[in-house]
Design goal:
The chain has two domains: 161 residues, no CATH class; 80 residues, no CATH class. The longest helix has 22 residues. 35% of the residues lie in helices and 14% in strands. The strands form three sheets. Strands 1-2-3-4 form a four-stranded parallel beta sheet. A two-stranded antiparallel ribbon has the order 5-6. It contains seven helices and eight strands; from the N terminus they run βααβαβαββαβαβαβ. Helix 4 packs parallel to helix 6 and helix 6 packs across helix 7. It is of the alpha/beta class and 245 residues long.
């Protein structure tokens, strides 16, 4: 079905730092890790589970007999149940390393196209004083993934964060946060001033939009605001996925 409808990315929920950190993330694993890997292979059209995977004339694969692009799978997680609760945000680093371990192992075995490609975070605070903390969490995750990838001799898995519609207009100034303002992601970014969405885009490889609506005009308006943020952030290749509630 994903192939038939041209779905290029699937987000598979792997829990939250609050609930899964003690038993999984801190130990370097993901819940249902084997099943997630199997699903990723099926969606990519490269399953080794006895499922016939037709190959189309142009080399693309399909699991349902129709031709279309393969679907990349990303782990999806959040930090805490309450959107404005960013306590223990440092523990998200263990989640990031667990995802990187899965991806690096797949790369080493030559099956990165059928593994999870990265992690997408869905923690969406609306309190502006929490924005710097969320950015710190994303930066820490990115740094830990890069460090582990270097140790394992592979590329870094992708890091992403959902963009809350509010963030496309919420102002943000990094001048008072030297630890963030000094990072290479923000060099040349309008003197460290813009919107929260722009800052997230500067850090992340993917930034899908959470629209919270199925009204066409509203969804398109939010998507256009996200694209405006991407241009302002200097990222012309923003992942423009729009999720409907």
């Amino acid at each position: 079905m994903c192939h038939r409808h041209g779905v290029e990315a699937a987000y598979v929920f792997v829990g939250s730092v609050y609930w899964e950190w003690p038993d999984y993330y801190r130990l370097g694993t993901l819940p249902y890790q084997g099943g997630i890997e199997t699903l990723a292979g099926l969606l990519a059209g490269t399953s080794d589970q006895g499922v016939s995977v037709p190959v189309c004339a142009d080399g693309e694969t399909s699991v349902d007999g129709s031709c279309g692009p393969s679907t990349a799978t990303y782990a999806l997680a959040y930090l805490n149940d309450e959107r404005n609760d960013l306590s223990y945000w440092e523990r998200a680093a263990d989640l990031a390393k667990a995802v990187q371990s899965v991806y690096s192992a797949a790369v080493a075995e030559g099956r990165e196209d059928s593994s999870i490609r990265g992690i997408i975070m869905d923690q969406e605070p609306d309190e502006s004083f929490l924005y710097p903390t969320l950015l710190r969490m994303l930066c820490l995750m990115k740094d830990e993934m890069a460090s582990l990838a270097e140790t394992l001799g592979t590329d870094r898995a992708q890091l992403g964060s959902f963009i809350k519609p509010l963030w496309t207009t919420a102002p943000l100034q990094l001048s008072g946060y030297a630890d963030l303002a000094g990072r290479e992601e923000f060099v040349g970014w309008n003197d460290g001033e813009g919107t929260m969405a722009e800052a997230v885009i500067r850090i992340c490889d993917k930034a899908p939009v959470m629209a919270y609506s199925d009204t066409d005009t509203l969804v398109m308006s939010i998507a256009n605001r996200a694209l405006t943020a991407a241009r302002a952030a200097g990222n012309g290749t923003l992942d423009t996925d729009v999720s409907l509630s």
